[in-house]
Fold each of these.
Amino acid sequence: MNFNALKLHPLILRAVQEDGYNTPTPIQAQAIPALMDGHDLLGSAQTGTGKTAAFALPMIHRLAGMPNKGRGKVISGLVLAPTRELALQIKENFDRYDRKTHVKALAIYGGTSKHNQIVKIKRGVDVLIATPGRLLDLMQMRVVKLDHVLMAVLDEADQMLDMGFIDDVKKIMNALPKTRQTMLFSATVPKPIESLARTLLNDPVRIEVTPQNEPVDTIKQEVFMVKREDKKALLMDVLKPGEFESALIFARTKRGADHLAHYLHKKGLQSGAYHGDKSQRERERVLNAFKAKKMNVLIATDVAARGIDISALSHVINYDMPETKETYIHRIGRTARAGKLGQAFSFCSLEERHLLKAIEKHVGFKIPLNLSHNFLIPASRQTASKPANKSRAKKGYQASSKKKKKTGQFHRSYKERAHKYA
């Protein structure tokens, strides 16, 4: 199948072909006809499968076919995204596909001036791409009116759930007209997302592309068993000149990302940190430098990296092991885009073995071990564990209880910060 067979508006088709796209991806080939027929849709797809075009092209097609003369621009399409980065990425895609039509898209998000966004909204917009927090703010200020929305998209719904945005999403969706077309996309579909889909979607078409437990075949995956204190030295070995083109490194915390970027910079590598505590201007500066290859190492946290789309990324490095198996799939999916090959390295300390086991159970195979690096933990130490006596077990139980309490406190503050920057 090629794009001609999808019967898109001629101006959209011309823009797509000028960009060099002839064949739709699997999710585009399945979703676009269903959406052009007016169906609601529940799509399960990993990052890098082309899902943005899968909903953007039908939305632009419908709006491009509506008369423009004498029609004031009202918000006819709404796309909700969990992060500023993803909202901007979606906006860039709309700008590419609608550039030959009269359709106009705008992205709004937190962490930047409301005034500029309000001015642009008042000038008129067809498709509004928004993070939940900023959209609710502008709705309460009565700047944004959603009573003419014909099509609504909830993108990265599982990330919305993780960031605590689901209640905000429900408030926004309740403000939309009952008769609308709704699309929900999520990399994973846990029970809360299934429940949300039942309340928002009307007899949806269900599409699943790239099963959740199968990482992309074009990604070479390796695990480096290493002591925690040796990870920096191992990273310098992996990032030797000539060994990589560009690397996206995942750190667990914002502080850890800053510390690692500073360390690599001191070692002579052009690197930068990318996370929610950075200003919007600084984040854009770092990301643009990385995309322009003025910087070849980017250290990011998981929340900030959602929405980063870099076509020529040779390596993803899990400096800290991901804490959920789904996060592992999201991380490594940043490489091997557009048919290219990629490599995903995971630095696993003894304290992180349980995370590795959970990931391997999820993907359904043992991730190959790199046995040739200079900081390899001997196999005997990888499996050795000290027998716990009764008093030690008791102390461990108490420590575990305290840790759970602290983790709960952290989770609440994490959600508060997520709302602040959305």
Note: The chain has two domains: 3-209, 219-383.
Amino acid sequence: MNAEAGPVFRTRGLTKVYRSGEQEVHALRGVDFQANQGEFIVILGPSGSGKSTFLNIIGGLDRASSGEAWFQDHQLTALDERGLTQYRRDHVGFVFQFYNLVPSLTARENVMLVTEIARHPMPADEALALVGLSDRQDHFPAQMSGGEQQRVAIARAIAKNPEVLLCDEPTGALDSVTGIRVLEALVQVNRTVGATTLVITHNAAIRDIADRILRFADGRIVEEIVNSARKSPSEVSW
């Protein structure tokens, strides 16, 4: 962790209101947040607590209703659509619960989709090696397990050398053994590439691998815990 470099993310008074007919749904209710370079943060909370909305806003996929969100010295909440698109392309790697791989492309080719548009990409082979898939790079998604496909998705996300890696339920569709391998890949990437990593999960056991844990409830951060020591994914009881 490198706190001296200044925060990678900071938000102040972040709100998000969705309107559905006459109803208003308050997804975020004034979130103040900060993350430093290289931190590994786990975000917990029940469905509807605002976790994904928060991640989508700092990832440039959604807009806040009010408040401020900053990435380094860029005010995300002031960017237009073009600016947000460039921010996502240049700085952010995303990993979701569903892998979104192109079925007709090999693992290597799926990763290369990102390297062709990134500013400073790492070679696809290197990204796949980081997640332990050097021997599977010529396989198609249908020839791979769910955990392997998710690791290809992680390799694709990191191949652009992002400053931040945002993961929404990356182990949600996986069994414990496979999920641990995916978490090992995320930890390895966090340490090797230095990307500030935020992981949303319903699995409270994963908290032990983080530098810091945030718990969301009713659109707010209601608890923050700093781990004095991080466990390795293999030590996590699922």
Note: The first helix runs from residue 51 to 58.
Amino acid sequence: MTTYEVRLTQTVEIADGTAAFQFTKPAGFNFKPGQAVDLVLIDPASPNAENLRHTFSIVAAPFQEELVLATRMRDSAYKRALRSLPVGAAASIEGPFGSLVLPEDRARPAVFIAGGIGITPFISILRQAAHDRLPQHLRLLYSNRRPEDAAFLEELQQRDRQHENFRLVATMTAISKSSRQWDGETVSIDGAFLKRAAGALVAPIYYVAGPPTMVEEMCETLNRMDVDDDDICSEDFFGY
């Protein structure tokens, strides 16, 4: 796997407890929307090199000039080291890898199911799709506890208004704990939700990304809906 050096150019909070880290994009680094990299932090003082490696889906689309990764900021050795990186600090990435990408057959619609920070690979896919003006019908089911927790929500809402081939169906499952107004869905994603949200889409391919328990439940739900495993692409976000 190829290793590239990158440098941090910006850190931005994009939701409560969630930050995006923008790095320089290495020359010759090519990837497909939805793929991931390992980000390796350079810290000679660390007693355990394994603590300095973490896998992240790439938020930026291939056409963009920067490389952006986003994550929940948990209290772990790795996340503390990541948060403390100053602008200009060097790190390295290994990759890209991952199969959470659109198929070559663009005639079939795609339904994305994202839980929390599992949204990151779909942001890359949707940005590139808009840039390329893909005619493919894309639908995103996005579950969070509160609007405050939903990274990239405003971008997705704007994309929903501007692109006729994309639809966002967002749900907030703990809206009573939010200080923001929310007029959308407030239930957990289940079979009925999926059927209602997918609407009249014909033979869509389903993509699922989020916490492992959520991904497992969604895949089982899709199977009960007679969706074949070959039409389900999933990715767990362990330790996100």
Note: The longest strand covers residues 3-15.
Amino acid sequence: MCGRYNLRTNLHQVAEFFSVLRGKEEVAGIPPRSNTAPTQTVVCIRDPGEAAGREFFAARWGLIPSWAKDAKIGSQCIMARAETVDTKPSFRAAFIRRRCLMIADGFYEWREEDKQPLYVSLKSGQPFAFAAMWEIWDSPEGEVQSCALCTTTANPLMATFSDRMPVILPPAVHAQWLNPQVTDPGQLKPLLAQYPAEDMQVWPVSKRVGNVRNEGPDLIQPMSAQVTLAFPD
């Protein structure tokens, strides 16, 4: 579920849209990707709680808990269920203390019955933020920053091909999610809700996206207008 996503919007636009004031140099080396996969370095946003405001930072997708003996656990921790994120040992500390946004233009899902890949995005065409968490792991080579996104039950559109969906946070709750002073799960877990189905769109794309080595904006092109899927108005 949501094991791949797309981010090709340039950093200047992302910074403007998400009110990011610093850190662009840290993520400048991350290339635009149409097929971002776990273990790759991705663009994230956090708020250290300082007057300087929100900042970009780079993190490996696949959270490595601070207590991990090696990095292998990260490949099993790319997503956290909203129902258990505050109690599961791999995620609970990051959920309480180190929340962030993972930025995307859209993401991919695979329809179970025929393994058809589908591209999901907002009807507005704007980039959006996955609810995510980050952690620091002390490796023999130095500190590693890693992250994981949250998932919840599928909305009516997503439920036509999946029982889960990533949590997409509307801009109105970004400040609360990022606020390091908010540590009460009772205030945080209600934010992990379904995004409105009527504001999303989906269409079938090439099975080339299944190979992480394939890259390029052609991966998100609809297979044909005749088979485009959309939530009914």
Note: Helices lie at 11-17, 24-27, 92-97, 174-178, 185-188.
